[in-house]
C-alpha cells in the first residue's frame, strides 16, 4: 500500500513537471545564451545559429519573450534595424560579403521552430553557379541544416564576440 502511494506521488510529481519542461524556450535558456550570444544591446541579443545555413549565420532575438512578430513592441523597430546593420557590417569585415538574407518565420505554418520571435541574418556569398548556391541555401531554409560541431560553434562565437568588443560603435 505504502509502495503504491509512493509510486502515485512520484507519477504526480513527474506529471506536474512535464508541462514546465514543455514550456522551456531555447532563447530564454541561460545555457543557450551563454554558449551562443555574441552581442547584447538594450533589448536584443545576437546569437550564433547552432545549425547555420551559411557560416556566420546569426539570430537577432529580443530579450523579452514574445512569440510572434506582431507581439513585439513596434518601438523596438529602430533598435532592430540598427542591430541588423551592425551585424551586416561584421559580415563585411569578417566574411568579406555585403550580401545577406533576412528571414523571419512567424508561426507554425511558416516553419517557426522556437516560439520566441527571432530574425535570421544569413551572410550570402557570390558564386559562379549562383542559382545552385541559392537552391542550396533555400533547401536548408526549408528543411533545416546540420548542427555545427561544438568546437566550430565556439570558434564562430569567439570570432564575432571579439569583433563586437573591438567595434563598439553602432
Ligand atoms: Zn523565450
Strand and helix order: HHEEEHEEHH
- Radius of gyration over all CA atoms, rounded: 19 Å
Whole-number mean pLDDT: 87
Beta-strand residue fraction: 5-15%
- Write the CATH architecture name: 2-Layer Sandwich
Low-confidence stretches: 7-22
What spatial order of strands do you see in the largest sheet? 1-2-3-5-4
Shape by Cα distribution: globular
Main sheet characteristics: 5 strands, antiparallel
Number of strands: 5
What's the total helix number?
5
CATH superfamily: HIT-like
Describe the overall structure.
The chain is of the alpha+beta class. The protein has a single domain, classed as HIT family, subunit A. 46% of the residues lie in helices and 15% in strands. It is built from five helices and five strands. The protein has helices at residues 2-22, 30-36, 77-95, 130-143, 150-166; strands at 37-40, 44-48, 58-62, 99-103, 119-124. A five-stranded antiparallel sheet has the order 1-2-3-5-4. A hairpin with a 3-residue loop joins strand 1 and strand 2. The N and C termini lie far apart (67 Å). The relative contact order is 0.16. Residues 7-22 have low confidence and may be disordered.
List the helices and strands and how they pair.
Elements lengths: L1 H21 L7 H7 E4 L3 E5 L9 E5 L14 H19 L3 E5 L15 E6 L5 H14 L6 H17 L4
Antiparallel strand pairs: 1-2, 2-3, 3-5, 4-5
Bound molecules: zinc ion.
Amino acid at each position: 500500500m505504502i509502495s503504491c502511494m509512493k509510486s502515485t506521488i512520484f507519477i504526480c510529481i513527474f506529471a506536474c513537471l512535464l508541462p514546465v519542461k514543455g514550456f522551456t524556450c531555447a532563447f530564454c535558456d541561460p545555457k543557450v545564451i551563454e554558449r551562443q550570444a555574441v552581442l547584447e544591446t538594450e533589448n536584443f541579443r545576437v546569437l550564433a545559429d547552432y545549425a547555420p545555413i551559411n557560416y556566420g549565420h546569426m539570430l537577432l532575438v529580443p530579450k523579452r519573450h514574445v512569440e510572434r512578430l506582431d507581439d513585439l513592441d513596434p518601438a523596438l523597430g529602430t533598435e532592430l534595424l540598427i542591430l541588423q546593420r551592425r551585424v551586416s557590417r561584421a559580415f563585411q569585415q569578417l566574411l568579406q560579403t555585403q550580401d545577406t538574407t533576412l528571414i523571419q518565420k512567424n508561426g507554425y505554418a511558416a516553419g517557426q521552430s522556437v516560439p520566441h520571435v527571432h530574425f535570421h541574418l544569413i551572410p550570402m556569398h557570390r558564386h559562379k553557379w549562383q542559382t545552385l548556391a541559392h537552391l542550396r541555401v533555400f533547401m536548408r531554409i526549408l528543411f533545416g541544416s546540420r548542427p555545427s560541431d561544438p568546437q566550430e560553434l565556439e570558434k564562430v562565437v569567439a570570432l564575432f564576440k571579439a569583433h563586437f568588443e573591438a567595434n563598439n560603435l553602432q
